[in-house]
């Protein structure tokens, strides 16, 4: 039987997001998103704003875009484009100087010949290109001068090739005639391939044959003729923009000098044909743009073309980071280009932002409602509610000196279910579930449960309980514009979300209704309230809100009615008999009378009422205090930051029949 041996190679993962990387933490993003949504942003805009701002330890799109612009300014402010002309001028000066020295020391030369040569050198035109062209037929007497002049031809050839093929200047330094012939052969074959491609006559085999002969010239290793054309066209277009960025004098000089490249007119003809083919194949590239350079560091043609490519890449990244075009998403970001321009850390940050965007949209945190608008999903609302409830419970604990609340109900009536123990829980252990968890964990870790069990905190589960007192609870929230103007809008929504999560997860026997009141009142689910924008609407129609609360209590007559009213203003509107709201400021006696009459009806039905008075308006204080005394209710005047804790404390007080005293819940 044969033995098969397998070899493996390991390297950096390059196939997209690392499959072994931990999942991105969405907690911070979701909290920030919800805060903006509650402030009135749409979920889509809120997500965009978070991605632009970034997180606590992560730059956002705006910071990355700023670094892109800074990098662009650095390139333009550092460089100038006459590097090749300057290098040619130095070589020309060196050649002329060496030739003059040779003429001066050659005692055997005919004096007339010497004088003629010196006159030629003395009267060279000031233009570098004209001087180089005039000396093309000069019979150099100095070998050193001849070598310097030939280096001009070699430099120009390598620079012109480097404009089209990055790295060619260095690769052809010291090149032999055979090397130059190989370049010309490659250009002939390349133009032949591109011309066939323009006519639609090329085949995959044509490309393979070309790469087989000349693949060493293309380190990018293109996989198709289209990839080859894309790479060459980007470079050629950058070369054109480089020329357009020069002064007219510089362009003229380089155009005249190009005739001396390698001393080969055939080379220039092939390069011209290449530019023509590429422009025809990729007309959408930017072939006519220009930039304004203002630095001191001279660039050659090849390096300058590379900088123009960098600038184009930076412009593309800036557009991607702006996310301002139709259908944009962070999946459009070219992370490899971002890493080239700003470093690997920037690419990691951008990839994380893209993963957050993808997770928020594809992970169930955002969904479209019946009207097609994007909304926070129930999953997102539960997660936010849990977070807000935890924060509010921490406030309660800090103010009462007691511990965080974890109970599912008030009085300890078994609910028939269990949950993992958390710090602060006072419920009895569910022994069966706890032992089962320990056995399962021990076996999974390779141990033998028969040899004894060691309990860990993660094994413990406690029995959930239900409250003995079941309540129908209405949170009546003022949504007049003053709530937003005075910074109470988001705290009100956070309070509603925390209360909703508490009732739906810990007091499942209770029924909660959220009712908002401005000029009109309306019942809302938690998603609608969370997304409610702040409208500049006058009116505090508490009368309408109380009517809707009464209907809800009537539908749940077997439950204890509990009314929690959050407001920052006196009632200034009420419903007329025809159902239309009527507004008056200052408050009209008819409005006050209708509101008081409706509150009296709720009081006679045994409703427990608590007013949460926000702000220090004396008129509001007198009205609320009078209403509370009239029906035996309570008034709480919390700071806006303590609103959530105050509402939850009053809600928990309604379950005071339990053994925990007034709080009615294990705090």
Question: How is this structure best described in words?
Answer:
The protein has 667 residues and is an alpha/beta fold. Helices cover 54% and strands 10% of the residues. The protein contains 25 helices and 16 strands. The strands form six sheets. A six-stranded mixed sheet has the order 11-10-9-12-15-16, with helices on both faces. The protein has a two-stranded antiparallel sheet with strand order 1-2. A two-stranded parallel sheet has the order 3-4. α4 runs antiparallel to α7. The longest helix is centred in the first third of the chain and has 23 residues, at 83-105. The protein is elongated. The two termini are 72 Å apart. Residues 1-16, 400-411 and 657-667 have low confidence and may be disordered.
List keywords for this structure.
single chain; 667 residues; alpha/beta; six-stranded mixed sheet; two-stranded antiparallel ribbon; 16 strands; elongated
Low-confidence stretches: 1-16, 400-411, 657-667
Give me the Rg, rounded: 40 Å
Q: Could you say which structural class the secondary elements and strand pairing correspond to?
A: alpha/beta
**Order of strands in the sheet with the most strands?**
11-10-9-12-15-16
Number of strands: 16
What is the helical fraction, as a range of percent?
A: 40-55%
Number of helices: 25
Distance between the termini: 72 Å
Characterize the largest beta sheet: strand count, sense, and whether it forms a barrel.
Answer: 6 strands, mixed
Shape: elongated
The average pLDDT is 84
How much strand?
5-15%
């Amino acid at each position: 039987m044969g033995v098969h041996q397998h070899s493996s190679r390991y390297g950096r993962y390059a196939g997209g997001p690392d499959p072994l990387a931990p999942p991105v933490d969405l907690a911070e993003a979701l909290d920030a998103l919800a805060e903006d949504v509650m402030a009135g942003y749409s979920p889509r805009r809120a997500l965009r704003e978070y991605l632009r701002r970034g997180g606590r330890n992560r730059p956002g799109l705006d910071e990355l875009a700023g670094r892109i612009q800074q990098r662009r300014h650095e390139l333009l402010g550092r460089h100038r484009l006459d590097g090749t002309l300057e290098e040619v001028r130095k070589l020309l000066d060196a050649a002329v100087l060496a030739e003059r020295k040779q003429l001066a020391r050659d005692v055997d030369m005919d004096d007339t010949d010497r004088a003629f040569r010196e006159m030629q050198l003395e009267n060279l035109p000031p233009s570098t290109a004209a001087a180089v062209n005039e000396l093309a037929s000069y019979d150099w007497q100095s070998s050193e001068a001849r070598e310097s002049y030939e280096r001009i031809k070699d430099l120009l050839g390598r620079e012109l090739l480097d404009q089209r093929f990055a790295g060619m200047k260095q690769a052809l330094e010291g090149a032999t005639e055979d090397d130059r012939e190989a370049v010309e052969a490659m250009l002939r074959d390349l133009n032949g391939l591109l011309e066939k491609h323009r006519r639609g006559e090329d085949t995959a085999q044509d490309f393979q044959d070309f790469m087989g002969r000349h693949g060493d010239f293309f380190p990018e290793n293109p996989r198709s003729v289209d990839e080859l054309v894309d790479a060459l066209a980007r470079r050629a277009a950058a070369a054109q923009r480089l020329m357009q960025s020069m002064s007219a004098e510089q362009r003229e000089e380089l155009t005249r000098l190009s005739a001396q490249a390698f001393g080969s007119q055939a080379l220039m003809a092939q390069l011209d044909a290449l530019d023509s083919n590429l422009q025809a194949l990729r007309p959408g590239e930017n072939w006519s743009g220009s930039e304004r350079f203002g630095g001191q560091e001279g660039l050659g043609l090849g390096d300058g073309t590379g900088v123009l490519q960098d600038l184009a890449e930076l412009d593309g990244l800036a557009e991607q980071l702006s996310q301002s075009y139709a259908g944009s998403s962070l999946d459009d970001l070219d992370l490899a280009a971002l890493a080239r321009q700003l470093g690997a850390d920037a690419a990691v940050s951008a990839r994380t932002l893209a993963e957050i965007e993808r997770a928020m949209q594809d992970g169930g945190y955002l969904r479209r409602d019946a009207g097609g608008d994007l909304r926070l999903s129930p999953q997102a609302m539960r997660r936010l509610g849990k977070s807000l409830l935890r924060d509010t419970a921490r406030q309660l604990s800090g103010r009462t000196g007691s511990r965080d609340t974890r109970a599912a109900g008030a009085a300890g009536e078994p609910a028939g279910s269990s949950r993992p123990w958390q710090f602060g829980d006072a419920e009895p252990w569910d022994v069966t579930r706890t032992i089962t968890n320990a056995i399962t964990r021990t076996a999974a870790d390779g141990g033998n449960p028969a040899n004894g069990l060691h309990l860990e905190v993660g094994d413990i589960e406690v029995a959930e309980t239900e409250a003995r007192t079941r309540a129908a609870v209405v949170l009546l929230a003022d949504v007049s514009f003053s709530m937003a103007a005075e910074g109470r809008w988001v705290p009100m929504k956070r309070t509603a979300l925390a209360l909703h999560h508490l009732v739906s997860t810990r007091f499942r026997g209770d029924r909660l209704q959220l009712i908002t009141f401005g000029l009109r009142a309306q019942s809302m689910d938690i998603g609608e309230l969370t997304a409610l924008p702040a409208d500049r609407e006058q009116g505090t129609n508490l009368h309408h809100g109380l009517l809707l609360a009464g209907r809800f209590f009537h539908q749940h007559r077997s439950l204890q009615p509990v009314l929690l009213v959050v407001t920052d203003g006196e009632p200034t509107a009420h419903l007329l008999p025809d159902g239309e709201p009527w507004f008056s400021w200052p408050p009209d006696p008819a409005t006050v009378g209708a509101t008081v009459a409706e509150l009296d009806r709720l009081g006679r039905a045994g409703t427990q009422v608590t007013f949460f008075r926000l702000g220090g308006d004396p008129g509001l204080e007198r009205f609320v205090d009078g209403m509370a005394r009239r029906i035996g209710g309570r008034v709480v005047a919390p700071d806006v930051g303590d609103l959530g804790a105050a509402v939850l404390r009053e809600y928990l007080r309604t379950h005071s029949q339990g053994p925990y005293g007034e709080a009615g819940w294990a705090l």
